Amino acid sequence: MSRTPNPDRFTFVSFLLTFSIMPKCPTCGKAVEWRDNPWRPFCAERCKLIDFDKWASEEYRVPGPQINPAELPPEPSAPETGNEDEKYRQ
Q1: What is the rounded CA–CA span in Å between residue 67 and residue 90?
Q2: Which residue from 8, 30, 62, 76 lies 20 to 30 Å from 90 (Cα-Cα)?
Q3: How many CB atoms lie within 10 A of CB 47?
Q4: Can you give the pTM of this predicted structure?
Q5: CB of 23 within 8 A of CB of 31?
Q6: Predicted confidence (pLDDT) per residue in 35-66, tens digit
Q7: How far is Cα 66 from Cα 69, in angstroms, rounded to an integer?
Q8: Cis link prior to 65 (omega < 30° from 0)?
Q9: How far apart are CA 55 and CA 79, in angstroms?
């Protein structure tokens, strides 16, 4: 007697694929198909854009000390730009 797999049956393998092996989308938490996914690690372009907006609006921040721009050292001045070939023609 051969047994055919029942797609409605929840098996241990399907549990592993759904909850532990498949990575989850950082935005919505859905399982993400990794192979041939142009938006990975996200599940869709929408989730990728939501995440980008959070970075752009500074909702996400990298931890670190507060920096007062007035206390930063002055930036070195840029060298004079000109025709670099003239230096070597002399």
Answers
A1: 47
A2: 76
A3: 19
A4: 0.48
A5: yes
A6: 888 998 999 999 999 999 999 998 888 888 88
A7: 10
A8: no
A9: 34
